[in-house]
Design goal:
The protein has 7 helices and no strands. By secondary structure, it is mainly α.
């Protein structure tokens, strides 16, 4: 159990300083598909912690383009806008469906524009991760003598994830209704 707690604590220290590149930090030059995949995997390696499966593949990117979730590439090259979309989609698809992602992105972009919405998304993701890490470390300190910390923590985090997912889905439905009403009144 001590090894588990030590590994968790090490990961928590790493995630505390995790930074998702903001719009102005994304590359200013176009990338080919394999470069995009490498860039996204490098950016999201720490929070997604996905040792066995690829977090993004050419097939996924092609599907996102077909679904009009991301713009089509220009001469088989992807720019800053594509990278921002792909980072957001890759993180969000861990908890909500592709159609919910599309609706959520459309809503946020309609309110703030692409650059600001993306930067806000990155900031919110980092804040959420830090808040969860803070909670994990607090639980660890208060339950240090309890040998069941890992099991309790897993249960707590899974319950919180489910609750957050349900709320996110409801908010997206409400936002869709608001957008539909705005479009109907125009």
């Amino acid at each position: 159990m001590e090894q588990l707690e030590d590994n968790l604590e090490q990961w928590c220290r790493e995630i505390k300083t995790y930074h998702i590149p903001r719009w102005d930090e994304l590359p200013d030059f176009d990338l080919y598909m394999d470069q995009v995949i490498g860039y996204i995997e490098k950016c999201l390696e720490l929070p997604l912690n996905n040792d066995s499966n690829r977090i993004i593949t050419p097939a996924m990117i092609n599907n996102y383009t077909k679904l009009k979730l991301i713009p089509s590439p220009h001469n088989k090259k992807y720019g800053k806008k594509h990278l921002a979309y792909l980072i957001a989609i890759t993180l969000l698809k861990q908890v909500i469906t592709i159609s919910e992602i599309k609706d959520g992105i459309s809503y946020q972009f309609s309110l703030y524009g692409e650059k600001e919405a993306y930067d806000m998304f990155c900031e919110e993701q980092e804040i959420a991760l830090r808040n969860v890490i803070k909670h994990v470390l607090e639980v660890r300190q208060t339950e240090q003598a309890n040998s069941e910390i890992a099991e309790n923590l897993t249960l707590r985090m899974a319950a919180a994830a489910f609750s957050n997912k349900v709320i996110a889905e409801k908010v997206i439905k409400i936002q869709n209704k608001i957008l539909a009403e705005k479009k109907a009144s125009v």
